[in-house]
Amino acid sequence: MDLALIWHSGDPVLVSVFVLLLMMSVVSWCLILLRSSLLLRIKRGQKRFLASFWKASDWKEATSLTAHAIAPEAKLARAGWEGFIHYRSNAGKGLGLAVSLDDFLVRTLRTRLSQENARLELGLSWLATVGSVSPFVGLFGTVWGIYHALVAIAAKGDASLATVAGPIGEALVATAAGLAVAIPAVVAYNAFVRANRVIAQGLDGFAHDLHAQLLTAAAIEKEGK
Fold first, then answer.
1. SS3 171
2. Is pLDDT above 60 for 85?
3. What integer pLDDT is reported at residue 14 of this predicted model?
4. Does the predicted model carry a pTM greater than 0.85?
5. Number of other residues whose CB lies within 10 A of the CB of residue 155
6. What is the rounded CA–CA span in Å between residue 121 and residue 223?
7. Which residue among 10, 113, 117, 206 is least enclosed by CB atoms within 10 Å?
C-alpha cells in the first residue's frame, strides 16, 4: 500500500477524496482532543466548585466562587443569583407584577440550563456527520478508482492478476481510509454524548437545589423586613 503512489499517479477525483478524508480526520481529532480536555477540566472544576459552593457562609461568598469557575454549575448559580437580584429590584413595577419569584427563577434557570447543554454539545454534530459520511466518501473513491483501473486495464488488453491486483488494491485503500476516519469519530461521539448526559443530569439536580435555596433566601429576607 503506497499512498505516495496514489498521490502521484491517481486522478484528481481520487486525490480529492483522500484530501477530503484527511481534512475530516484532522478536524475530528482536533475536536476530540479539545473536547476531551474540556470535559476533564469541567469534571475537576465541578468537584471543587460544588464542595466550596455548599460550604459558603452566605450568598456573597457563594457568588464570588462563580467568577472564574469553569463548571457549568457555577454559571447556573450566577444566572440564578442575578435573576434573583433582578426580580427583587423590579418586583414592584412593570412586568414584575405579573410573575412570581418562583416562576421567574424557573425561567431563568431553565434558559441558562439550555445554554449550558448547548455549549456541551458543540462539535458533536461534526463528529456525527464525519462518522456517518466518511465511509461513503471512501467507498466513492474506491468505486471511482476501480472504474478507472478497469478502463486502463482494458486499454492495455492485459487482464492478468499482476496487472489487475495493483490498481484495484490501491483503489480499495480509499474505503479503508474512510473507515479509519469514521471509527474514531463514532467512538468519540458516543463517549461525549454519554459524558454530556451525566453532566446534564447533575446540572438538572443542581438547578432544583439552587431554585429551592433562592426561594428560601427570599422567604428569610421577607421575614426579616
1. helix
2. yes
3. 82
4. no
5. 8
6. 42
7. 117
221 vs 5: CA distance, rounded Å? 77
User: In 3-state terms, the chain is what percent helix, strand and coil (to 5)?
Assistant: 85, 0, 15
Q: Which among 45, 31, 201 has a CA at the least distance from the CA of 123? A: 31
Report the amino acid identity of residue 31.
Answer: L
- Residue at 121: amino acid letter: E
Distance (Å, whole) CA 202 – CA 43: 11
- What are the b/e assignments for 175-197, b being 16+ CB within 10 Å? bebbeebbebbbebbeebeebbe
% of the chain beyond a pLDDT of 90: 47
Return the exposure string of 100-127: e unless at least 16 CB atoms fall within 10 Å of the residue's CB, then b.
Answer: ebeebbeebbeebbeebbeebeebbeeb
Q: What is the pLDDT of residue 114?
A: 93
Q: How many residues does the chain have?
A: 225
